[in-house]
Amino acid sequence: MIVYLSGAMEQATDEGEQWRSEMTEWLKTELDHDVINPVVSSQLLVEEHEAYDYSDWKFSNPKRFVEFIRKAIDLDLDNIINKSDYIICLWDYDVMKGGGTHGEVTMAYYKNVPVYLVNQVPIEDLSGWIMSCSTDIFNTFTELKSHLIKTYSF
Fold it and tell me: Which residues neighbour 63 within 8 Å (Cβ) at sequence distance 6 or greater?
């Protein structure tokens, strides 16, 4: 099984690296599932295209910035559509400042890829669209892990 870890990056303090690292280790150890971590994929994309200062391009060279970000979008959506068996999404306030996670969850729903959402905002702030794209919604990673063990342990 392959899981894609969706959640805020652009607006998150550490690009969401900490929770993704912790989930990656848990998924490999407990379920022997492979992980697509977009933080790692993005870092590799930056290196491949020598785009170390790409965030500066947003202001200094918007066309170049958009072209590079489109490469990241294409990679992420390909990973969701063609490589992932399910998605784990962390939904918090940082997600609301971006757009990628919204698109990833929507695309996963459209392609019938299960979306397991860990919601960390009050229910009144959770979009009905995102709720409806989610297969299951959890309040904590502990609840999610319990579900994953029941669902994917053989």
Answer: none
Task: Write down the pTM of the prediction.
Answer: 0.93
Write out the two tokens for 135: 């297969």
H or E segment at 3?
strand 2-7
What single letter denotes the amino acid at residue 35?
A: V
Contact between residue 89 and residue 7 where contact means Cβ atoms under 8 Å apart: yes
In CATH terms, the superfamily for domain 2-37+84-152 is Response regulator (3.40.50.2300)
Please report the DSSP string for 72-125 in residue order: HHHHHHHIIIII-SEEEEEE-GGGGG-SHHHHHHHHHHHTT--EEEEE-S-GGG
18-70 tens-digit pLDDT: 999 999 999 999 999 999 999 999 999 999 999 999 989 999 999 999 999 99
Phi-psi domain of 150 (left: phi exceeds 0; alpha: psi -120 through 50; beta: other): alpha
Cα-based angle 145, 7, 129 (whole degrees, multiple of 5): 95
Query: Where do the structural domains in the chain lie, given as residue ranges?
Result: 2-37+84-152
